Amino acid sequence: MASSSTVAGPTIRNTRNPDATPPPSILHLSFNHEGRSFAVGTTDGFMIFNTDPFVQTIRQDFSKNDQGVGIRIVQMILGTSKFAVVTTGLRRQKIMIWHDYDLVRQVTEVLYFRSEVKSVRVRPDRVVAVMMQKVFVYDHKNLQLLHEIETGPNPKGLCEISLSGGMVLVCLGSEKGEVRVEHYGLSSSKLIKAHDSDVACAALSNDGRLLATASTKGTLVRVFDTSDGRLLQELRRGSERAEVHSLSFSSDTEWLAVSSNKGTVHVFSLKTSSGSIGTDGSQEAEQNNSPLSRLSSFK
User: Fold this and answer.
1) 156 φ/ψ sector (left φ>0, alpha ψ -120 to 50, else beta)
2) What is the sign of the dihedral through the CA atoms of 96, 185, 161 and 173?
């Protein structure tokens, strides 16, 4: 599973020496599709870590050069030593492709835009740039623009792409609570009315078959079949409003993790192929609507 999030700048303070230079703040974090490594963007640059064993493999520090910029978005490009990065400051309107080979550690490709880049999604053959009300899809080989999509207001830069097989892209539609699904291999486009409220979070399975969404209310999570837009399962996160921060499918699509500002992570079992889905899309097996695990985070 792959996921990414923008982090509100936590730092670790040196209590023994308060006059020491403070460590950089975290601006962004993203995992690769297998969860075996993750990238961290900071006010000084970016770092790459392996998860098992936990070890830092790459560190690029920009704080000591004339750029003096941080990295607010960093995405690893599957199967390569390349990273798509977006900086802080006055450079928010471009995506840079950073090559980190033994002898070549530099920006080799740049995409320029007229407005601020809200998020980036990448796979070996595509680069996707998300703006406030547009999504641009590029061929990674030559950075040729392949598709331009108009969306509703999208301050969070919500957009997901499949990481295996034919490319599937999901982004906001033009109406409230609407999600647009693009199946590029099938040359088909579909609109799904996911919620009555604005969509706050979305996730796509690695193969692009399943889509999960949550609204700004944060009480329900819905799982859809991207091929036909059917509602497969409705999951109750809780009865109180919450801000859903992240949705993530397991690699085998049997589980869905949901985190929120309530300081918890709910893990749901998905029964999307068990035949327990009603013809109207409703979930007939009530036990599937409740999380099998509820983890409280440290505060």
Assistant:
1) alpha
2) positive
Q: CB neighbours of 96 closer than 8 A, spacing ≥ 6?
A: 84, 85, 86, 87, 107, 109, 110
Q: Which residue has the tokens 């409003």?
A: 241
Below-70 pLDDT ranges, the chain? 1-20, 64-68, 102-104, 272-299
How much is the pTM?
A: 0.83
Q: Which two tokens stand for residue 60?
A: 């690029």
Contacts of 160 (CB under 8 A, 6+ apart): 121, 169, 170, 171, 202, 203, 204, 211
Distance between CA atoms of residues 144 and 104, nearest Å: 24
Q: What is the pLDDT of residue 291?
A: 58
Torsion of the alpha carbons at 148, 149, 150 and 152, rounded to the nearest 10: -140
Long-range contacts of 110-113 (CB under 8 A, 24+ apart): 111/138, 111/143
Q: For the segment 82-135, what is each residue's pLDDT rounded down to a tens digit?
A: 899 999 877 789 999 998 876 667 888 999 999 999 999 999 999 999 999 999
- In a 3-state reduction of DSSP, which class is residue 225? strand
203 is written with which tokens?
């996730």
Region of 36 on the Ramachandran plot (φ > 0 left; ψ -120 to 50 alpha; else beta): alpha
Residue 89: both structure tokens together: 């400051």
Number of H helices, E strands in the chain: 0, 25
User: What pLDDT is stored for residue 287 in this prediction?
Assistant: 39
Domain ranges of the chain: 1-115, 158-299
Nearest to 75 by CA among 55, 98, 91: 98
- Residue given tokens 């740049």 in the structure block: 110
Give the per-residue pLDDT at 272: 67
Residues near 106 by beta carbon (within 8 Å), at least 6 away in sequence: 98, 99
- What's the burial of 15, exposed, middle or buried (CB within 10 Å: 0-12/13-18/19+)? exposed
CATH for 158-299? 2.130.10.10
